[in-house]
Design goal:
Blueprint (H helix, E strand, L loop, with lengths): L1 E4 L5 H13 L3 E6 L4 E6 L17 E5 L19 E3 L2 E3 L5 E5 L6 H14 L3 E3 L17 H13 L4 E4 L6 H5 L4 E4 L7 H8 L5 E4 L6 H13 L5 E5 L17 H8 L4 E3 L1 H5 L5 H11 L3 E5 L17 H19 L1
Parallel strand pairs: 7-8, 7-14, 8-9, 9-10, 10-11, 11-12, 12-13, 13-14
Antiparallel strand pairs: 1-3, 1-4, 2-3, 5-6
Helix pairs in contact: 2-3, 2-10, 5-6, 9-10
């Protein structure tokens, strides 16, 4: 259920409505739009009919039931699109945002070289994995806190915000103390304790779609984060598992406009994990721009042949520069 406040509603009236909602045992999630405020009401569905009485409160225009199971993630609960600010960068705004860097943090030299390449190319955010959930227990698992410290150095020395994956609820507090954006990978999209934990974080969260997760299931995972108090969630399409074996996964490019129609949250595309091969990353990135995504998360490594993780899908610096030029040209053409 959502409560729509009148255009001329005062802050005092808004406060009284929120207090009334909470007195009934529900949580109130106000969303301040340009013209009016909408309040999402979250709680036991069995008592929702009583919320309709809010229409008798001062400052309330109407109440509207939300039929979708994802209440806070739905477009009905939020006026306009959510724009997430990371420093001076706006994700979900008019500009296409590129997050780029190596799959895994390997050393100070490797990460710093990556950061300078990413910045030179014009990308806004550096990606790098300090914790790596791997299919094999014998594969490289990441540098963990030492990797986080290197990511923090990038922020201070190069001036780039950073994003890294967190895979354990117990590590969230540590990870958020070093980086700007928390990433939950495909394997953890339905790790509900982790979703709730990052929902209490002060950092924005990039939520990757699971390999066998439906769009509705992805939005329900986002709902866990939103309902726990963190409004800064972006969704990431990174390929789903199908019968096709020519690529690592199948990029569901249609998920972008579908998500855009269902939710106010920003939508990011990860062409690297979808393709699994660097040759397809640039064409898939073009598709992401054309279909209306808010940005991409792409892997770039100074020397992919020496990468300890996912070298086959990582762009070399010259290919990364080519990608950035093509994105700039295509974005400009679409705007005009």
């Amino acid at each position: 259920m959502i409560i729509v406040m009148k255009k001329q509603a005062t802050e005092k009236q808004l406060t009284e409505v929120i207090r009334w909602i909470e007195s009934l045992g529900f949580k109130a999630h106000p969303s301040h739009g340009v013209e009016r405020t909408i309040i999402g009401v979250i709680g036991d569905e069995r008592g929702k009919e009583g919320i309709r009485q809010a229409e008798f409160l001062e400052g309330v225009e109407k109440t509207i039931p939300i039929l979708k199971p994802y209440k806070l993630a739905s477009r009905e609960s939020h006026e306009g699109n959510t724009v997430i600010s990371v420093g001076t960068i706006e994700i979900g705004g008019p500009d296409f945002v590129v997050m780029a860097g190596p799959c895994a943090v390997e050393s100070e030299e490797q990460l710093m070289e990556s950061a300078y390449i990413v910045k030179k190319g014009g990308a806004q955010i550096l990606r790098g994995g300090a914790y790596k959930p791997r299919t094999s227990p014998y594969s490289f698992q990441g540098m963990e806190e030492e990797g986080l410290k290197l990511l923090e150095q990038v922020r201070t020395r190069v001036g780039l915000p950073t994003i890294t994956e967190v895979i354990n609820p117990a590590d969230v507090d540590l990870v958020e103390s070093y980086v700007d954006i928390l990433q939950i990978g495909a394997r953890n999209v339905q790790n509900f304790p982790l979703l709730k934990k990052v929902g209490r974080s002060r950092r924005p969260v990039l939520l990757k779609r699971g390999m066998m997760t439906t769009i509705e299931e992805l939005l329900m995972s986002a709902e866990y984060i939103l309902s726990s108090g963190n409004p800064n969630v972006m969704l990431c399409e990174r390929g789903i598992r199908t019968f096709e074996t020519a690529t690592r996964n199948t990029l569901d490019i249609s998920a972008v406009p579908v998500l855009k129609s269902l939710t106010h949250l920003p939508v990011i595309v990860d062409p690297s994990h979808a393709a699994g091969q660097w040759q397809y990353v640039i064409p898939l990135s073009r598709a992401a721009v054309a279909v209306g995504a808010d940005g991409i998360l792409v892997e770039m490594h100074p020397t992919p042949e020496k990468a300890v993780s996912d070298g086959a899908q990582s762009l070399k610096p010259e290919k990364f520069y080519q990608l950035m030029e093509e994105i700039k040209t295509l974005s400009s053409a679409i705007k005009h």
